[in-house]
Specification:
- The complex is a heterodimer of chains A (111) and B (311).
- By secondary structure, chain A is α/β, with parallel strands linked by helices.
- Chain A has helices at residues 3-10, 34-40, 55-63, 78-87, 98-107, and strands at 13-16, 27-30, 45-49, 67-70, 91-93.
- Chain A has a 5-stranded mixed sheet with strand order 1-5-4-3-2, with helices on both faces.
- In chain A, α3 packs parallel to α4 (78-87).
- The termini of chain A are close together.
- Chain B has 311 residues and is of the alpha+beta class.
- Chain B has 2 domains: 10-150, CBS-domain; 161-309, Heat Shock Protein 90 (2-Layer Sandwich), CATH 3.30.565.
- Chain B is built from 13 helices and 10 strands.
- Chain B has helices at 10-20, 23-26, 40-50, 69-77, 85-88, 102-112, 133-154, 161-167, 191-202, 207-227, 256-259, 269-273, 281-288; strands at residues 54-59, 62-68, 96-97, 116-120, 127-132, 175-182, 230-238, 241-248, 291-297, 301-309.
- In chain B, the strands form 3 sheets. In chain B, strands 6-7-8-10-9 form a 5-stranded antiparallel sheet, covered by helices on one side. Chain B has a 3-stranded mixed sheet with strand order 3-4-5. Chain B has a two-stranded antiparallel sheet with strand order 1-2.
- In chain B, α9 runs antiparallel to α10 and α10 (207-227) packs antiparallel against α13 (281-288).
- Classes of the chains: A alpha/beta (111), B alpha+beta (311).
- Chain A binds chain B through residues 32-36, 38-39, 43, 49, 51, 53-55, 57-59, 61-64, 79, 87, and chain B through 186-191, 193-194, 197, 207-208, 211, 214-215, 218-219, 222, 274-276, 278, 280-281, 284, 287.
Chain lengths: 111, 311
């Protein structure tokens, strides 16, 4: 499944990376603890979190994640968006909770 | 041929693409259509305004027929421009299915000599696009171009470190990169590990080779930001081994054994809320590297060393 299809299925707002939606999603991980994401996520995963500070893009770059999904309708800081833009990390946003977004993704077959 | 990787010539790639690409990827999805009640005057207007040479006649998604520029010329000559489209159109239309390989379209263009084929969805039978030779050429060129770009992107410069060895005779040559990390600057945590990653990619290492190392460096960088006023990360790069020394003169770790225990943390709450300081940094560094050593004296700082062997 591609990022674009995920965006469509969950009606996500694309804040960064409109041109990067062709990426195939390899899996998903939900956590707000950066070290935890570094340990347990994997290349090509989407990461679901409420964290909005600029370090999320550093974590995503280190793990070569496919995208970050920010939940609960939180808006990332401007610096976060700038860094993600620069590092080509798509940032997607949802008004739903982490729980609900993760559930929907799982339903779509992303494990 | 055994055991050699050889590159397919461009023409063969194009042939492969013709089989791999589907009609739906090449077709024009914006189909101009008319209904059976329209007159040939309408046809003339559509063909002229859009510079096309034929138009399918469609009603509620179903294909009824097709009118070509030839039909129009015939009507012009015989002064039958007020004729309804349904009395002029060809009803036996050669069509394509959206899920067929592109080569099917090329075959049909060769066989029939028509200028366009309406494309139908196999399940619903409805018109979903139209295919001309131009669409095929566009699609092939675009695919070849992106193949070419993908290949360019993958091509990494050769590992320059091996050249260093021959330029400066010694028993071992390494490249050292040094990064200074300011404590307390949470917004910048991760910047140095990002820079290191860029540099290693430039040197020719792949994402997959260096991922473990970058995770460890990012954890070490976050530790410097959380717990110290300033620290230094020294990365020594040898072709197949990368060693990192992290030093600071921060508060030190009173009980290293405790600090190595997953979940143990002395980070203040505000730091934890940002997702840092969950007590996983040191254990994470240990599990991401092949060797790790840490020594610390309360009040005098911490020395952390780790290395990764690239396979």
């Amino acid at each position: 499944m591609t990022l674009g299809e995920v965006v469509k299925a969950l009606d996500l707002k694309v804040l960064v990376g409109q041109d990067l939606l062709g990426t195939t999603v390899a899996g998903g991980y939900a956590s707000d603890v950066l070290s935890d994401v570094l340990t347990h996520s994997g290349k090509g995963y989407v990461w679901i979190t409420v964290q909005i500070h600029p370090n999320v893009s550093a974590v995503a770059t280190a793990k070569d994640l496919a995208a970050i999904i920010i939940t609960n309708g939180r808006s990332p800081e401007a610096e976060t968006l700038r860094k993600a833009e620069q590092k080509k990390i798509p940032i997607l946003a949802s008004p739903w909770s982490t729980y609900k977004v993760a559930g929907k993704l799982y339903e779509l077959g992303i494990e | 041929m055994k055991g050699t990787i050889h590159q397919l010539p461009r023409a063969k790639k194009t042939q492969q693409l013709c089989y791999r690409l589907r009609i739906k990827e090449a077709m024009n999805k914006k189909v101009l259509t008319l209904t059976s009640g329209h007159t040939m005057t309408d046809v003339r207007r559509v063909l002229r305004d859009h510079r096309i040479s034929g138009v399918p006649i469609v009603e509620s998604g179903r294909l009824l027929g097709i009118v070509s520029i030839e039909d129009l010329i015939n009507c012009l000559r015989s002064g039958a421009m007020e004729k309804a489209v349904k009395d002029v159109m060809t009803t036996e239309v050669v069509t394509l299915f959206a899920d067929e390989p592109l080569v099917q379209a090329i075959d049909k263009f060769g066989k029939h000599g028509f200028g366009r084929f309406p494309v139908l969805d196999r399940a619903t039978g409805k018109v979903v696009g139209i295919m001309t030779k131009k669409d095929i050429i566009h699609c092939l060129l675009k695919s070849l171009q992106s193949l070419y770009h993908a290949k360019e992107g993958r091509r990494k410069p050769p590992l320059e470190t091996s050249r260093l060895v021959t330029d400066f005779p010694s028993d071992g040559t390494a490249l050292t990169l040094k990064y200074t990390v300011k404590g307390g600057d949470f917004r910048k945590a991760g910047e140095k590990s990002d820079q290191l990653k860029e540099s290693l990619l430039k040197l020719g290492y792949s994402d997959d080779e260096i991922r473990r190392l970058i995770i460890a460096v990012l954890e070490a960088e976050m530790n410097l930001v959380i717990y110290t006023a300033q620290g230094e990360i020294r990365v020594q790069i040898e072709p197949r081994r990368i060693s990192v020394k992290v030093t600071d003169d921060g508060p030190g770790i009173p009980d290293i054994e405790l600090a190595m225990r997953p979940g143990y943390s002395t980070a203040p709450d505000f730091v934890r809320e940002l997702g840092f300081g969950a007590g996983m940094g040191l254990p994470n560094i240990k599990s991401s590297t092949d060797e790790m050593k840490i020594e610390s004296f309360p009040g005098m700082g911490t020395n952390l060393e780790f290395s990764v062997v690239l396979r």
